[in-house]
Write a structure and sequence with these properties.
By secondary structure, this protein is mainly alpha-helical. The protein has one domain. Helix content is 64%, strand content 0%. It has 3 helices and no strands. α1 (7-19) runs antiparallel to α2 (26-36). The longest helix has 18 residues, at 45-62.
Length: 66
Amino acid sequence: MIDKDNTFLTEKLKELVEKHSLPQNIAPQLLALFGKYPNLDIQGAKQDLTDDLEKLVNSIFQEGKV
């Protein structure tokens, strides 16, 4: 992985959260998901990540945070 400590990704996610008025807790949740699937070449990993991202986004909308 290019950004071992996720510094770049963390900063970019924070910028996007602020820019789009998203809940502050979404950035760490997204980082956790990306950490859960470090290798998308593993069979099923892309679909699992997609499913988890969809669940996260749906929960944010259901909670009325967006």
